[in-house]
Task: structure prediction
Amino acid sequence: QRTGEPLVLRQAGVLTAFEDTLIVGLSSRLVGMNPLNGSSRWEAPIATPRGANDVERLIDLVGSVSRVDNVICARSFQAGVGCVDASRGTVLWSRAANGIQGVHGDDGFVFGTESDGKVIAWRRASGEPAWQSDRLLHRGLTAPLVMGRSLAIGDFQGLVHVISREDGAPLNRLTTDGSPIVAAPVLAGNVLVVVTKNGGVFGFQPN
Result:
């Protein structure tokens, strides 16, 4: 048990595992814990709190995370994106980023959506930006889903945008019931599944 933060974000947090270590998000830190007794093995900060009050300093980690082998990448709420070596508990890189949704990725890149609707790809090894797309500005985007050679992203109008993983170019647009997509898209087998605010569950067969 740990002392709570002044404010805690009411949003899905981070909880995953690497080998025999439980990895949780505590404020803006990824913490590796012994699952048998809760003791801390390491802590790795993704971002540093800034601001004059508790609201401005609210930078909790938000799910989902992107894990490839021993590297786990996560987003700090409206503050940054970074990757951690879970085998050692060391920060590999951290970059300022103003988003509120989790990230997804592959062995080459980490993908995320910003609060204003930008879609950004960071190089997984270094954190350097690989590309940025401004085509979906101000659409209330979900976190992206890596899906083959493309990304799937939901928006506040119930649309699912399928864009190129290589440069963010638009590939397809799928419609639902017109209400916001409320969570990041997921893959169930080879079916792309999204859920809307009106309670709709939609499955699409990727081409």
Summary: The CA atoms of residues 122 and 130 lie 5 Å apart.
